[in-house]
Amino acid sequence: MNFKEVLLVVNPISGDIEKDKIISEVQHQLARKNASYHYFKTKGENDIKDIRSLVEKEKIDRVIVAGGDGTINMVAEAIKDFDLSLGIIPAGSANGLALNLNIPKILARQVEVALGDNYIDLDILCLNDIICLHMSDLGINAELIENYDASSFRGKFGYLIQSVPTLIKSEYPYRFNIRTENGERSEDAVLLGVANANKYGTGANVNPKGEPDDGVFEILIFKKLNFMEILKTLRNEVELDPSIVEIIPAREAHISCKKPVAFQIDGEFIGKETSIDIKILNKKLRIAIP
Ligand SMILES: Nc1ncnc2c1ncn2[C@@H]1O[C@H](COP(=O)(O)OP(=O)(O)OP(=O)(O)O)[C@@H](O)[C@H]1O
């Protein structure tokens, strides 16, 4: 154990989950390790700045975050320039990063892992200067997330009932220009993914050979125009059918499209964009894993 001052960041509203049990378990395990406990409850605004100040003021040497992917990305942004490792307690409606890192399901084990000594040095992707830790895309999946966000139905059922309106409204396929360090090409695609990890939060293993710590990301070109088949792949725990996607590894890339396309990063709808700059930061994010 190489820490004394531990900060727990909790998103009180993520995933409709009571956070009291998480807080008690972290306090309990820290007391056993004689480490000090510090607490930060997110507010949804100015959190990055406030976390940075707290880390400096209290000389924090380990951070744990309890929230969904949005909260983890926010904390990653706050601490990326400090020499700190991060433990994650999945507590969101989507927990795609935790799924990719095989974070256990039982709370006591999650806290043990978060306070443990086994790490991955995760690549930090930056898309138009926004952090991406596992999976972003342009096209129909982002359109689906946009429609889901605007509707009142949650969970798998919420996505299911948005499939048909998304299909009707979508202007797919999109013509993307893709430039990487290895060359340039144009492709018609229903969905263009940018993957740091293997899976979507739903469990769909769309990038089976990707490694989140190898300094390379993958561009996934979903070409076949079978919209329902692609949605089924993304929304279910299935292996990818290789005939519907082409995978290009890259270290940096620029993607453009003449008409604005829906764009999401790690499950958060960002907006409609015509141009995406993708790079990998020099700094890695050290995350505690089983
Ligand atoms: N105290 C708060 N009140 C309201 N919103 C908050 C608060 N703290 C954080 N947020 C918001 O929570 C969002 C992040 O939620 P996160 O993605 O971690 O959980 P989630 O349950 O998966 O959410 P979602 O389903 O919206 O993705 C951010 O938009 C952030 O602004």
From TrEMBL:
GO molecular function: ATP binding; kinase activity
Gene3D superfamilies reported for this sequence: 2.60.200.40, Probable inorganic polyphosphate/atp-NAD kinase, domain 1
InterPro entries: ATP-NAD_kinase_N, Diacylglycerol/lipid_kinase, Diacylglycerol_kinase_cat_dom, Lipid_Phosphate_FormReg, NAD/diacylglycerol_kinase_sf, YegS/DAGK_C
Domain DAGKc: from-to ranges: 1-131
Pfam families: DAGK_cat (PF00781), YegS_C (PF19279)
GO BP annotation list: phospholipid biosynthetic process
Record keywords, A-Z: ATP-binding, Kinase, Nucleotide-binding, Transferase
Family annotation (SUPFAM superfamilies): NAD kinase/diacylglycerol kinase-like
SMART domains per record: DAGKc
Listed NCBIfam families: YegS/Rv2252/BmrU family lipid kinase (TIGR00147)
Protein name from the UniProt record: Diacylglycerol kinase
